Give the backbone structure.
Amino acid sequence: MADLRRCIGSTRFGIATHEAPAEDFPAQPSQKDGLGRMCKTHWNQYAAGLARDAKARKAADGGTASEESPTESETVPAPEPIRTRGMRGSKAVVPEAGSQGDAG
Ligand SMILES: [Zn+2]
């Protein structure tokens, strides 16, 4: 007797929800019941879709397709400058949080 389990699918990648036997789901310890929320087939499709998206985003970002960039500057929220009451003549100079690599 196989328990039917709902595969949540993904509207983002055009994967419809459906029911499948629990044995079709990959083990996922982080889930409450220890099973993934998508069946193996769709999970693979989903993962592949995510990878494709990431690649596309990277390509749109820099144009290069190199995968080794340990110091990738993601969108890091810059800390807001602290406003002190009463101006003290000179403006506070905030160091730019941009890329300071040499031009090449
Ligand atoms: Zn599925």
User: Anything to note?
Assistant: DSSP finds one helix and two strands in the chain. The first strand starts at residue 4 and ends at 7. Residues 4-62 form one domain. The chain has a mean pLDDT of 80.
